[in-house]
Design brief:
Two copies of one chain form a homodimer. In chain A, about 65% of the residues lie in helices and about 5% in strands. The first copy, chain A, is mainly alpha-helical. In chain A, strands 1-3-2 form a three-stranded antiparallel β-sheet. The two termini of chain A are about 40 Å apart. Chains A and B meet through helix 1, helix 3, strand 2, helix 4 and helix 7 of A and helix 1, helix 3, strand 2, helix 4 and helix 7 of B. Chain A binds a DNA duplex (30 and 30 nucleotides) through helix 3.
Chain lengths: ~240, ~240
Amino acid sequence: MTSSRKSLADTTAEGIIKYIIDNKLKEGAQLPNETTLSSLMGVGRSTLREAIRALVSRNILTVQQGSGIYVCHNTGVADDPLGFTFIENKEKLVSDLLEFRMMIEPRVAALAASKATPAQAGELLQLANRVAECYDAGTSHSEADALFHARIAEISGNVIVPQLEPLIMHAIDMFIDITHSELKEETIRTHMAIVNAMENNDAIAAQDAMTLHLIYNRDRLRKAREKSTPGNPAQ
Amino acid sequence: MTSSRKSLADTTAEGIIKYIIDNKLKEGAQLPNETTLSSLMGVGRSTLREAIRALVSRNILTVQQGSGIYVCHNTGVADDPLGFTFIENKEKLVSDLLEFRMMIEPRVAALAASKATPAQAGELLQLANRVAECYDAGTSHSEADALFHARIAEISGNVIVPQLEPLIMHAIDMFIDITHSELKEETIRTHMAIVNAMENNDAIAAQDAMTLHLIYNRDRLRKAREKSTPGNPAQ
DNA sequence: ATACAAAATTCATCTGATTTATTTACACTT
DNA sequence: AAGTGTAAATAAATCAGATGAATTTTGTAT
């Protein structure tokens, strides 16, 4: 039927993952070249390349022509791992992405606040300041903002959220442009409120601040969208 | 540095996606064979195959030797899209997956309850009954259970959750074995409570029932884990 | 020591050939 | 005429070789 037995390329991809784990290769480490690796795996070069391609699309490897094959830096985001490509209504997609963030981020912030050490709170302060600097410099702040939220996700201690959060924020970035300077004052203020909550290990305050932050963002985006397409409100 | 310009295989993969969208191919539709497709895309067979391999690993295509290339049935789950492979502490992974479910599912249930039509509530009743049948038949209920939760995710109207929920449940299934018949009575009872809440469009009741359900599940799993490894509690 | 050029390394891509799996067509049996 | 089994056609799987393009390394000249 649709079972499709495991192909040699798939088996090889698993073999490469096993190789990475067994040899304790870390981010950025270089793998043997194609010829060597294909001998190691006992397959032809084409097959090996297909396996590599699959791992590249899963954001596990990067390949650079003329240089080599490397273990991915985990900072990147795999290409549409959640299948947003085939969601037709992008307006609704963004709206739902924001709704989803509102489900998890306040809870994550609360978790993080209850666990944050003074050193971690200090890190967050630095990251929040960097976002503010981006606003002042007029450059895009989305990368710095993503780092701020990603660090909170890490501090929460949950290992799922740090994997997921970048995907969500990246997807939002892909479809909208949040360079509204209107958001500047509010964002800076709320980020500081969140940092304060972390310093005081105040879970409730962190959750509230994050909630307010997201509500504010969502409303700003909604207004911006209505302004840009006045006769075509989100369905 | 690590930029790595877009490869021809990646471009080809995008071309194939465009082909699927332009030709309005639906799930299960067959694509032209390798030779034809490589001509269409203007690349060699190897390059085309690498592109296909990338799309297969993203769960967009399936390939069957001797038969053809098909658009994926969306029911399947892409292979580890969130990178759980490299999380070393699987105990903590499962624990955090459950924690994550507790963040979103009650909210999703509440959303769904506020929107559910009588017909949709009826569907959920059928799905809940099917889970119960699996328990009675002694077969694995995880697939039926996943369908129940997936349908709730759909009814919620949020387009993110239905993409994500199967990943979470699939990952949990991969690492633990929930065939405890101890869960039978509780699961059936709670599923019915959720269905009732849907019928009455009672968001609060749905959220509460889901919360209780997940708490019960988590505690059961925790006890089972402690029993199986008494000297080695989760860190 | 530095800068530039040549060489070596490595991935990118194409093409052809052989093998394996699936489907289709056709003849044979009942 | 219906069903069955075999042969042919189709399509993907895999390997191997050759050429191209990007990067890194090496060597030489200043």
